[in-house]
User: Fold this.
Amino acid sequence: MKGIIFSGMRPTGKLHLGNYLGALENWVKLQKEYSCFFGVVDLHALTTGYNHTEELKENIKEMLIDWFSAGIDPEKSTVLIQSYVPEHAELHLLFSMITPLSWLERNPVLKEQIRDLGLKENIDYGLLGYPVLMASDILIYKSNAVPVGEDQVHHIEIAREIARRFNSLYKNIFPLPEAKLTRISRVPGIDGKRMSKSLKNTISISDPPKIMEQEIKSMITDTQKIKLNDPGHPDICIVFTYQNIFNPDQSREISAGCQSGKLGCVECKKILAKILINKFDGFREKRKYFEKNPKIVQEIVIEGSKKARKIAKKTLEEAKKAMNMNYE
Ligand code: AMP
Ligand code: TRP
Assistant:
């Protein structure tokens, strides 16, 4: 029996390098070994984006085009839209009954969101319940592994706690899911903080070569290396962090060149830009195909949602039965 995976992304438009290295690249690899469900979690997008829903449709399309161009294969994996499988929402409601408020209030991811989005203490009911909905996404397919970036690990721990609590209160029907991290599970943005749309420090994987080049050019390096031949400190330089991630074969040489003052920042950035641009050559080509054929993208996700729904219905029935909610 293959293991089961669920993972999702909020449809916020085109994906960035953090989404790619922290999750998407891993999803593509895991499709061979696992039965995978990948969800466009539009309800989760509403938890903070309920006041600009006019962007949703376009954002969903752009994100799906990124997924398929990066190698998510609908022959192998089930791709769905969360709100097209309403059983997620119903299981979420059942889970909300057994989730202590204290688990949600001390959620460090929420605290980070409050800080990054400037929400102060002014948060909505839906946002507080974010991890409960996420637990439902994962458990409705009885997933045992969840490939995500490091920022999501705590949410998956809450999903485990909810599964454990359900199993002990009613019946043992849910596996305890585990996070599956990549080698680089926290990609820094061009300012060195975690890459994130809300911090406006992203590089999109679909950016045209010229734009990628400019983004890399604008990165701040070691501020003490002013002239070309000044010796640099790669350990505090974000461009070097990127060299380590994207260009590991040359990183020793680059570090030595920087420290000795032989390699200037302009040259170092040119090397990085070339590597990054090459990495996404094939991806950009495939993207052109899906951009011209958005109907194909739509059909895949509608079919996928139907397929997912059959499984989700079964689990929901099983959960309701365990709770004595079968009245016929
Ligand atoms: P989001 O856009 O927040 O829905 O994130 C989608 C996926 O990308 C999740 O698995 C995140 O953990 C992952 N992710 C987002 N930002 C980063 C980052 N800077 N580094 C690594 N993974 C990330
Ligand atoms: N919270 C995740 C994020 O922001 C998205 C998500 C929703 C998710 N449901 C999920 C990820 C279930 C993994 C499993 O990235």
About this structure: The radius of gyration is 22 Å. The chain has a mean pLDDT of 94.
